[in-house]
Amino acid sequence: MKLLVTGGAGFIGSNFVRYVYKERPDWHITVLDKLTYAGDRKNLEDLDDSRFTFIHGDICDEQTIDKAVADCDAVVHFAAESHVDNSIRGPRLFLDTNIIGTYEVLEAVRKYGKRLHHISTDEVYGDLGLGSTEKFSEKSRYDPRSPYSATKAGSDHLVRSWIHTYGLEATISNCSNNYGPYQHVEKVIPRNITNIILGIKPKLYGEGKNVRDWIHAEDHSSAILAILEDGKLGETYMIGANGELDNKTLIQTILELMGKSPDDFEFVNDRPGHDLRYAIDASKIKNELGWQPKYADFKQGLTQTIEWYKQNEDWWKPQKAETEAKYKELGR
Ligand code: NAD
Ligand code: TDX
After folding, report:
1. Does residue 59's CB lie within 6 angstroms of at least one atom of ligand 1?
2. Which of 89, 156, 177, 211 to mutate to test the pocket of ligand 2 (most atoms within 8 A of CB)?
3. Based on the structure, what is the number of domains in the chain?
4. Is 321 part of a structural domain of the chain?
5. How far does residue 186's CA lie from ligand 2's centre (Å)?
6. CA neighbor of 121 nearest in space, from 176, 164, 80
7. pLDDT tens per residue across span 304-317
């Protein structure tokens, strides 16, 4: 198998590449990545050249993606602008990468008749509201509510239409919030672990009541591999690990695990249009493909993640000041 991974130098992409490299020793992996602020070549530096190739390029560039797809057997498409707050500050780049970039991937895959797995998010389904026990499933209605989720929804619709119209051999997965090593310091868990390391109070948006459904990036990776190998073509799979938690409890848990008082955080401006709750029903992938998450204990996964950020200051420090400067402008 010659696997092409777009966006493989980012957080989940690089976790997935390392996972497949370990689990499928006879596969060759090629990563195509633009190395935006969110991508780092160092995330993949341990991989041996005999089984791994890196291409520095943009999925929006037709010739680059055409050549990379021609040379592979299957594509897993992660490349995207991924941060909601950035999409509120400047939506245009999200349209370019998430919509036009996905279009270019689809056209190359169609031209060469290759297998595609498209990575998406639960945010395309909108907001479940607090106090409900409802969860997103494959049948949920699309209802994106931020520029980020609207462009991810657009990319899902393009993939679905290429499957329906051109018979493309593709699958889609919509996953909940990921955590783990190599996540950019703009996202809530690494932002606030690194704040605490630096002696800065963790920041909680609004009233901190918003709920996210957490899954470790390694569990997301094993689910993607299961779909790539055994998923039914044309289908969508939800991925989640029953990790629902409100943001205040999340921040207080991080504080406790780092030996601080659980009240040592500060409330900051809320995100405009801030979705209240996401939650995933992952029955389909569990029943059809026998997939199960390994990180059933969120506190254990979080403890390991905190340790990783403590041990890898060289990795995150160069991004920290610039990220916080952007947040300062937003009062967050
Ligand atoms: P990330 O921002 O950490 O990484 C994105 C990667 O894509 C980076 O390496 C970046 O350089 C690359 N990239 C961006 N634009 C590109 C372009 N035009 N051409 C080539 N490469 C480009 O993102 P992430 O958190 O790892 O998310 C990866 C995927 O998973 C995204 O599609 C995202 O929507 C989806 N997803 C993320 C989460 C989450 O919790 N982070 C949850 C569900 C789904
Ligand atoms: O400092 C913070 N304090 C805080 O309370 C930050 C950065 C965020 N928050 C809140 C906002 C959200 O309710 O925490 C929650 C999580 O925020 P993010 O880490 O920005 O993630 P979210 O907006 O939920 O989106 C993530 O999950 C779905 C990923 O960034 C997306 O790429 C993915 O599709």
Report:
1. yes
2. 177
3. 1
4. no
5. 9
6. 176
7. 999 999 999 999 99
**pTM, whole model, 2 decimals?**
0.98
Establish whether 107 is a catalytic residue: no
Per the residue annotation, which of 104, 123, 218, 244 is the catalytic one?
A: 123
Question: Strand 211-216 to strand 244-246: parallel, antiparallel, or no bridges (unpaired)?
Answer: antiparallel
User: Which amino acid appears at position 138 of this protein?
Assistant: E
Report if residue 220 sits inside a domain.
yes
Task: Kindly name the residue from 19, 103, 125, 148 that is annotated as catalytic.
Answer: 148
Give yes or no for residue 189 CB within 6 A of ligand 1.
Answer: no
**148 is annotated as an active-site residue:** yes
227 in any annotated domain: yes
Closest C-alpha among 265, 248, 263, 253 to residue 195:
265
Give catalytic status of residue 127 as yes or no.
no
- What was the pLDDT predicted at 131? 86
Residue 170 maps to a domain: yes
308 phi, psi to nearest 5 deg = -60, -45
Alpha carbon of 187 to ligand 2 centroid (Å): 6
Q: Which of 310, 138, 168 is nearest to 236 (CA)?
A: 138
Range of the domain at 118: 2-185+214-244+274-301
Mean pLDDT of 190-201: 98
CATH code, domain carrying 28: 3.40.50.720
Query: Using one digit for the tens of pLDDT, what is the confidence trace for 88-126?
Result: 999 999 999 999 999 999 999 999 999 999 999 999 999
Structure tokens at 1: 């198998």
